[in-house]
Design brief:
The two termini are 26 Å apart. The relative contact order is 0.28. The longest helix has 7 residues. 4% of the residues lie in helices and 56% in strands. The strands form three sheets. Strands 1, 6, 8, 9, 10, 11, 12 and 16 form an eight-stranded antiparallel beta sheet that branches. It has a seven-stranded antiparallel beta sheet with strand order 2-3-17-7-13-14-15, with no helix packed on it. A two-stranded antiparallel sheet has the order 4-5. The protein has a single domain, classed as Jelly Rolls. By secondary structure, it is mainly beta. Pfam families: DUF1349 (PF07081).
């Protein structure tokens, strides 16, 4: 499933300001101000209005999303999301936090958690985030260009969960964030964790 198929067959969790094709076949998505995905932990609020374009994800399938990392405002974020319902989901990708691009993931089972690591050398480059679902786990990796994959997270997900997956972005603190998504792919899951 490529970007065009995802646009045709996927559904938005929350409609963005706009989603349109760019001159090179990229998908330009403009996020609404105060869009986000988070449940309770530490902050005490629930935000469930991230812009995620999702299609069904098999119980043994991988999804990849590639986007241009050219955003630099506090909490700007883009990547991929796997969603079961409003209390069970995973988002993974790049979030600009505390002055730096950070690769990370939020895993939510009733309550959200958060993990990040700085990737300042990824700025201005195309980032690919991959989530591989198999058995009771989702393995999340990320990279730029053809560099080696970096393990971001291994998270639980019930093998019987009816999940959807695809691209996402949100802009918790400002208007005007436009993310340039350049690819969406589906494939067989990774054969091993390492």
């Amino acid at each position: 499933m490529d970007l065009q198929e995802l646009m045709r067959d996927g559904e938005w969790t929350t409609e963005p300001v706009r989603a349109e094709w760019g001159p090179d076949g990229e998908l330009l998505v403009e996020a609404r101000e105060e869009s986000d995905a988070w449940r309770v932990t530490s902050y005490g609020f629930v935000h469930d209005n991230a812009h995620a374009l999702l299609a069904p994800l098999g119980t043994s399938e991988a999804v990849e999303v590639t986007f241009q990392l050219d955003f630099d405002q506090q909490f700007d974020q883009a990547g991929l999301m796997i969603r079961v319902d409003e209390t069970t989901w995973i988002k993974a990708g790049i979030e600009f936090s505390d002055g730096a691009a950070q690769v990370g993931a939020v895993v939510t089972h009733g309550f959200s958690d958060w993990s990040v690591a700085p990737v300042t050398d990824w700025m201005g480059r195309e980032v690919t985030v991959r989530a591989s679902r198999d058995g009771d786990a989702v393995t999340i990796r990320a990279r730029v260009a053809d560099e080696p994959w970096r393990l971001v997270r291994v998270a639980p997900l019930s093998p019987t969960a009816d999940a959807r997956a695809g691209l996402f972005c949100c802009a918790p603190t400002r208007p005007g964030l436009v993310v340039r998504f350049v690819a969406h792919r589906r494939s067989e899951p990774d054969s091993s964790l390492h």
